Batch of 4 targets.
Target 1
Amino acid sequence: MAGGKPAGVTMESMKTWLVLVIACGMASGADLTVGSATAASGRKATGFIQVPAGVDAAANIPVIVVNGAKPGPTLALVAGSHGTEYASILALQKLAQSADPGELSGALIVVPLVNLASFAQKVPHLNPVDGKNMNRFFPGKPDGTQTERAAWAIAKQVVEKCDYLIDLHGGDLDEDLRQYAYWANTGKAALDAASRAMVLAFGLDHIIIQDYRTPLAAGATMNLTRFALSLGKASVTAEAGHAGMSSAEDLDALIEGCRNVMRHLKMLPGKAAPVEHPLWFGRVSILASEQDGVFYPLAAPESYVKHGMRIGYVTDYFGNRVWDAVAPISGVILYIGAVPSMKKGDTVAHIGEVAEAPM
Ligand SMILES: [Zn+2]
């Protein structure tokens, strides 16, 4: 057969050769460096991804490299691009602390807190240094503002060095949220199957489908997972925690979710138990306030609401009702405003429309 095995080579020696070739493509034996952290095989190291000063201040993003003693893929775990989504940040800190390079096949690049200024200053959603959302500017720019330079550094140091990526989020200071994950449909069958297996292994039973099949305009910026997917790296997002809280239940969901993906990728021993019957959401409707004032929710995350149902209201500063928050579709409340502060145009709720499971 044309292109078959060379004459004189036994099946057994071909197999050995193939195993060697495959193993060489995986993290094994060599040092792994991310930012200032270099871990030898079987070791763990901490350091910083340095974002040099530019039009604004420099930043140092903490990173932990766990370089497994055995060969396997490299998984990047990222949190805290929104620095007050505390559960996701604490989950990665704990996961990195407890990760044992001796039992790991492959490597972990753990970035538990991308947006340190947001965390330190308790500023939700944005990087207070430049007022930008740190999960919207990938692949970044080496000469942009701090958010863009940080995205550039993470793209080079983390995304380009990994095979798989999980981005962790949660309800921010002002968001009441139920746990859910995102899976993206890119239209690339093998990539989508790989990330779908990851999101099922993660185990959260509410999954939002992101439609990334339409290419972005040249030069457009994007979120972290979309960027990683554009480089062919299977990636998912998971969210837990809300309104400044980090309960044991939310931390466990995120830590166990990451570990289950590691089991699925054969980086850890044991079997992942993928979620069997998740609810998939094909469309998320975003309801924004039409008035400044004081917000009162009338529904909780996870409740099923009907189109036209009142799910909250806004009063003026004297307590007079000035606007009703009405569900624009029938679906499940994925998150709803957690605090009374409300500005015209701010998000009141995300409502997910239940969809068929993707093939
Ligand atoms: Zn977030």
Target 2
Amino acid sequence: MGQHGPGIWPRSLELFNFLNVPEVNDLGKPNPPVRSYKPGTLELMNDSSMVPHMEPSPAIPSHTPKLIGQQLLDAVLRRHLERFSCFVETGTELRSFEQSDEGIAAVLAKNEILETFHTKWMIGADGAKGVVRKQLGLTFLGETRDVAFVTGDIRLTADCLDRKHWHRFGVFGDLGVSLRPADEAGEDGWQFYLLGSNLDMSIAQSEERIFETIASLIPTEIAFKKAVWASEFRADIRVVNKFNYGRVFVADAAHVHSPTGGQGLNSGIQDAFALGWKIALVAKGLADKSLLETYTEERLPVISEMLEVTTAILNQTVGTGNMTSRGNPKLFMLGINCRFSSIVLDEFTTPVEGRPINAYGVLDEGHLEAGDRAPDAPSLLHIRPGESDQTTLFSHYRPWYHTVIVFAPSPADATSDLGVLEPCDKSIVRSAVILSSSAPAVHVACPADLVLLDQGGHAYFAYLVEASQIKVFVIRPDGVIGAIIHGAEGARRYFSKIFVDM
Ligand SMILES: Cc1cc2nc3c(=O)[nH]c(=O)nc-3n(C[C@H](O)[C@H](O)[C@H](O)COP(=O)(O)OP(=O)(O)OC[C@H]3O[C@@H](n4cnc5c(N)ncnc54)[C@H](O)[C@@H]3O)c2cc1C
């Protein structure tokens, strides 16, 4: 697999942190500056940035996109799964499946020996050519563009190639190469991209011809060691019409798009995160199966809009030959929302008939709606006996439970709103009262799991709450604001759409 799709955007880093996999952020490297040379020379043309810049803010702790080769990401995630006694079985192929009301019978091949595996649910993350989407008969509408490139991992050294830059040689509309240092692969490891209308795609089959082509574009002595893998890619831009059929779902295998925006893998991560909590609740008998239908409802507009963004970047890259045209802040994926979802509830926003969906791009500090990403807030102080540590909101959001946050002038003001949560098990709904920085930091008995003082004022600022107001937010397990409500009645209305017993 090698480096493949290494760009991890800030929203995905947030999701990995919610999952307790901080290694992705720790091992990932910031994008190096792109160094371009005058064609046919080693003369510097310019240095530029491959990604947009975002100022850090308390609401957005992960603001730097990171690069981590897919091979390493894969190893990190497998190691994490093993902590839950979940092991990826390699060398096992899904050949076909049949589903009924009760479950799925999947035919697997292990060393060409077939066996039938029974399961209640199935999620196809088997790539664009995978069998799951095809067998479900989902349409895969879109286009294949006449834009192709050869990419792969290579090991080489040359005096002119420092490892602090992403080097670009040649003319990209015509014939060019980019070399990105891939330190995890070793001091001589690079991910290469060869592209341009004069590129002969068949070189992907020959290590020697790849070496020759790169050498023809960089006028210096290069010590080539090995092409670890190489492959030809065409820009495919497609999405399914539906993300599930019955008990079978597609995540990642639901879409394919031009790699210019670096969004494919990130979108797949988010598909899985958006689906996981819903399947968990239904599998435990806590939610009705109809909750699963909202997976398509919430993801299809996001992916459709993402395809427009990445296709625009592709068009610009092809038109100008400039791969640094990825300046669009939407790529950070922090504005992704599902304001349009039938299961979110907002008592503070008046619905506007016919408002266009803006699924990929709402990130406005002055506005927050149900369906938006829940912001972080640092510098919160626990005001329980024996707990005086500072904490952040994000350290309390987890994918296996809802978090109900009551902003209130005092714990007593929040008590009646929290009563509605009494029948809910702590493993699926937790609660926090957040007091404004002007409230006294004294312990008062309160049924909430947490009472936090917003010492830095970041929570009240990010959630747009006045110090004297009572405002309740329900944060879904996927870190999305499920509801913004006045109190208990709103919480009952929101949870009645999620849980069977509410
Ligand atoms: C050059 C390039 C750069 C990219 N850069 C980025 C980037 O920076 N950021 C980003 O987000 N995305 C990027 N992408 C896109 C990203 O690589 C893909 O979106 C992602 O790999 C798709 O993941 P997937 O798991 O669906 O499919 P795949 O990566 O294709 O993996 C599918 C897996 O399923 C297995 N499989 C298939 N069929 C079966 C079967 N029947 N039974 C069992 N197993 C099966 C395969 O063996 C494979 O392991 C890039 C893509 C390319 C080509």
Target 3
Amino acid sequence: MSRLDPTAVPPHPLGTGPAHPTIQDTQRLAALALRLGGLHIDPGKLDFFRQRLGKRLAQNGKTSFRAYADLLESGAGTAERKIFIEALTTHTTSFFREQKHFDWLEATGWSELTAEGAGLAWPLRIWSAACSNGSELYSTLISLKEHDARATRHLRVEGIGTDLSQAILRAARQGVYTANEIKGLSEARRKQFVLRAKDGSDRYRIVPELRNLCRFDPINLTEMGNDGPSLADLILLRNVLIYFDPPTQKRVVAALCARLRPHGVLMTGHTETVSQLPTGMVQVASSIYRKES
Ligand SMILES: C[S@@+](CC[C@H](N)C(=O)[O-])C[C@H]1O[C@@H](n2cnc3c(N)ncnc32)[C@H](O)[C@@H]1O
């Protein structure tokens, strides 16, 4: 899938509104989404724009999508431009999503990374580069902790989650989930890594032992500059490339591979293809790449 498929997208928390965009409006909005966030959205999907942005019109006192696009293009639209990009993104994620990546880490990845010195000579740094609500980063830390316990070592670990959405980063920092959201965690993992809310409500929090290893920062991958970790051992870039057009995908992959330590590993989503790997990167398994030089 190289474009957003609005039929696969659940209703967005920012809600819907009464105005309807014209194709000219959505062409302008799609061009802005591409320019501001590298997002590749088919302008023909009028309903998608209406669902995602309808409420933004109301909140800005605009009665048409044309007036909203005018605002985005104006000097007064600086703050709204960020919200606009955020409203067009999707945060779908889950614990232990794409299990094959975790199987590979358990069978191969953790041993190889630690053999290089990660976690021992220096803190093993894991960067979840489009982290959504943190499930991905916490799952990876759980997998590493389990490996660590089996190997009876005490690895030093740093988890860094970044995303362009401030709202979703707040959720990641809190690390609080519903029973439905943690259904990817086995009973044994829940016992060890999750605390149930004391009020008996349907809420579960990641244990401080894991939360304290993590920090969550805002980073837009399409305009990263020098932001973000300088060197990481494992970078998760999963299920975000699908939102970008091919030149942006190539630029983002190159920028992240440049932040990998030698022999560091990059993972992308299983449905995402990296058409041009940067020099020195080799594929070691499905959607898993290692920096060889
Ligand atoms: C579908 S979720 C994937 C979450 C997680 N990586 C996973 O695979 O479960 C995509 C995430 O990418 C974020 N995102 C979209 N465009 C981004 C960008 N330009 N920079 C950083 N994050 C972005 C969204 O806010 C969203 O949280």
Target 4
Amino acid sequence: MQVHDLIGIGFGPSNVALAIALEEQNHGGQALSTVFLEKQPAFSWHQDMLLDNAHMQISFLKDLATLRNPSSRFTFINYLHEKGRLQDFINLKTFFPSRHEFHDYLAWAASHFEDRCAYGEEVVEVVPEVQNGQVALLRVRSRTRDGELRERLGRNLVVGVGGTPNIPEVFAPLRGSPRVFHSSRYLRSISEHAQPRRIAVIGAGQSSAELFMDLHGRYPSTRIDLIMRGHAIRPSDNSPFVNEVFNAEFVDHVYHRPDHERDAMLRSYWHANYSAPDLAIIETIFNVCYEQRVRGEERHRILRRHEVLGARDLGGSIRLELQDLDAGPEASHANQSNEYDLVVLGTGYERRQHRDLLASLAPWVGEIAVDRNYRVSTPAEFRPGIFLQGACESSHGLSDTLLSVTAVRTGEITAALSPAPLGNVPPAPLGNHGPSRRNVAYAARI
Ligand SMILES: Cc1cc2nc3c(=O)[nH]c(=O)nc-3n(C[C@H](O)[C@H](O)[C@H](O)COP(=O)(O)OP(=O)(O)OC[C@H]3O[C@@H](n4cnc5c(N)ncnc54)[C@H](O)[C@@H]3O)c2cc1C
């Protein structure tokens, strides 16, 4: 069996950017044998949320390459140039392309690496290859769409699998119901419903706000409740000083803080990324609700400070038991029970798939800890390098799950694979940038 220098799991923006960095930094002309395994049948970036009117929440300059190598041919600007739209894009006068256009850019970039991506293969397990008491290689097992199991051997692994839909416990029994679905399945699921009368959207982040507006435009007479725990839909703070937390240099700052300081920092900036839609869409939602009041047709409701206590499938509808968190327990309206034709979950993502995939390596890896270059800390007798993309928010900061540092991070990972990645991977560096005890402890949550 061929031994690959590098196996990438997932071929989303993170690993596409890595493919670009590997090509451009290319280890002094020594081409690595690389393969990326992607479970989707073709490149696709959050396809079920490619809503009309949805725009990027990040500048196009934070594309797959610019911040690492502005002269790369894989920049968004070069994409526009090759597509013949550069001047027209300039006339748009925006830093924030539509998500449709950015998807097209990402797919264009990915298309240059078809020869090293196996689409339609889901990685199910990574197991150690032990030789003479050492873990020499990693065996990566994947399943094709036809159910066939495949195996590959690699000297290095980069896990870039993104998030997994977060389904709150209360909705767990309704998994599989066509009437309850997560935003990650939105477009394919909503197309199955012709004219729902009443819809609940759960959550108050960017996705929920976009879902609310999309549903409002899609169904002119449907009633929509946006159900949220918070007091108000709060905007993301993208003012320039706050935005510095998404700068590449800020990763150093976050990574080298003591645990308690890093924790506090993540908490204090949490709203810069989570549960915080753009101000423009909040204003649009407010305007829609206001106009409905003017016309005396209050179809939609923003149910703030409401908790979903229970959810039952009644066959033809879903019943939600709601608690008004601001009403005292004695208040007659503290609990209400509403029926909906559809419930759409804008409840975000969790990032733990890498732990499941690497579970067989636990005797060597223990609690996963990463060094500054995203390399998982392993003992000397474990030779392969394992790198994580997008799973290091707790150690590297809020930018980790976004596109903000992708270009720079892949340059760092590519450099960390040098100078001796091929067949003789040194143990995880424990020098200045190595995982201190502090980070090992902290990394329990990675
Ligand atoms: C609707 C939406 C809009 C967003 N907009 C922005 C934005 O404007 N700006 C921003 O900075 N961030 C945005 N984000 C955040 C998002 O995380 C990043 O844009 C980006 O997708 C991260 O890239 P990734 O490659 O790390 O993860 P992903 O894009 O999630 O890619 C992971 C890939 O791995 C594949 N995969 C997963 N498990 C396996 C497996 N076991 N085997 C094989 N393949 C697997 C998946 O199919 C997927 O293709 C958005 C997220 C969402 C959901």
